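step 4 of 6: structure.
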Amino acid sequence: MFIAANWKMNLDKKSINFFVENLQHYKFSENLQLCIFPPTIYIDFLSKLLENIPISIGGQNCHHQSFGAYTGEVSATSLKELGCDYVILGHSERRIYNKDTNENIKKCSQFAIKSDLKPIICVGENFNQRNNGKAIDFIEKQITDCLPEEFNELIIAYEPIWSIGTGKIPHKTEIREMHENIKEIVFSKSKKNVKVLYGGSVNEQNILEILSVNNVDGILVGGASLKIKDFLAIYDSAVKYLQKKYNF
Ligand code: PGA
């Protein structure tokens, strides 16, 4: 089970310090992987604070070249150097505000893999596509176009755009159907299995319902990962869910 905390362009040194202070003596479960995606500028800062805490760090995006005249960009190799293990690619906010394309996301994912980072590729339909019964076709195209040529370990995050930051989540059957489809699409193209995370308005109240859906391998949390109390409430619920399910 994987929990990804996407801080987006939020928090500062003071609030990050406070967040990590509250993790210092926490008892973490070995059955749950945690990764925080802070703003790029705080990766190094957070990485030092997390030195003795079993939480990985990731970048929120990366470029597909190591170096070059790309003002404002961050390379996968630099992320790796700062201690990142993962990188989010193709988040809908980047697709909308920064015009990230499937083609570009594919290039970045290939370069991330070469740089020894594990990509988390985000896909998700908008409200009209969901309402018009076009969600599955749309996601199939996104995956087909973004999928790296070669990979060993890949994570896909299914994040319906209409669910991000809105408090609305799809019906359990819609999540199940989409996650199943995503796994089938990837397998048919690569003969590889992928983990699929659900993202979009995950919180303490709905986490158990989401985790109970077949083929949900974890979650990508935005807003509810910014406050330590909410973050730990989600984490604890996930641990309890696993303990009950697998009896450990
Ligand atoms: P949210 O964001 O949890 O605030 O809806 C999720 C995301 O954008 O990854």
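step 5 of 6: annotate
 - The CA atoms of residues 167 and 201 lie 5 Å apart.
 - The chain is about 40% helix and 15% strand.
step 6 of 6: archive
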